[in-house]
Amino acid sequence: MGTQQSGGTFNASTQQSGSTIGAGTHPGMIRVFIGYDEKESVAYHVLAHSILRHATRPVSITPLVKSHMALFYQRERSAIESTDFSFTRFLVPYLSGYQGWSVFMDCDMLMTADISELFQLRDEKFAVMCVKHDYVARDDVKFLGAVQTKYEKKNWSSVMLFNNAKCTSLTPEVVANETGLFLHQFKWLSSDDQIGAIPTTWNYLVGEMTMPGTPKLIHYTLGGPYFDGYRNCEHADKWFAEQRLMSHSAKG
User: Across the strands, what pairs with 100?
Assistant: First the structure.
């Protein structure tokens, strides 16, 4: 599975195992990394389509496919990991050559606004930026019977703007060996002061909160409409509408 692009080129090349990967993206390009799990393949493609459809700037979209990282990253999947990208998300700065800014998001999302609006929120004084949710998950189980792990800073890492040069502590070795709480609670930073806040509309948690109007980035965190048990969840109609647009082709 390769890199989807809009309006530009991406010349990243893999160096020797253990070294960084060159970041050849044009400075005007918005780099987006989306978590990928074969059990939710359709989610990745619909999200990517929604990003490209609303974007007004060149965008490079890369799926984080764990099997593609075997040369520099190995970690056995544990029972508490609900997806294949539970930890690979923290490899984004490494994959970006520790240069510029990159956006990460889970695949179970839908973009309803221009991603350049999100990208414009970046602030150089922070190492990473996210929606700082303050809640406790209601359920003990989520999609496909996965355990709903409850911890401080829950879902902060589901959408992140990485200031890559300030995230050099996130090496493949660290991501492969540190605990989930160390990674997801941002303990790889020297202080929480290095975490900037972005508005909640950029990571709206379906089933866990309410908001008037349409959020700019909808997160089907309990389970996406592509799973039978969640076909009628809030904003499911918007996801199915995007799927139809993605599947459309001209007639003739």
Answer: none
CA distance 185 to 188: 8
Q: Indicate the pTM of the whole model.
A: 0.84
Which residues does 144 contact at the CB level (< 8 Å), separation at least 6?
39, 82, 223, 227
Contact residues for 213 (Cβ-Cβ < 8 A; gap 6+): none
Question: Distance between CA atoms of 204 and 58, rounded to whole angstroms?
Answer: 25
* Block residue for tokens 């009628």: 232
Q: Distance (Å, rounded) from C-alpha 114 to C-alpha 217?
A: 10
Helix axes 41-54, 236-247, angle to 10 degrees: 80
Calpha distance 36→83 (Å, rounded): 8
pLDDT tens digits, one per residue of 181-211: 999 999 999 999 999 999 999 999 999 999 9
**Check whether domain 4-247 has CATH 1.10.1280.10, yes or no:** no
- Determine phi and psi for 14, rounding to 5 degrees: -80, 130
Give me the long-range contacts of 69-77 (CB less than 8 A, separation at least 24).
69/172, 71/14, 71/17, 72/14, 72/17, 72/18, 72/172, 73/172, 73/175, 73/176, 74/176, 75/175, 75/176, 75/177
Domain boundaries of the chain, sorted by first residue: 4-247
φ/ψ (deg, to 5) at 172: -55, -35
225: β partners: none
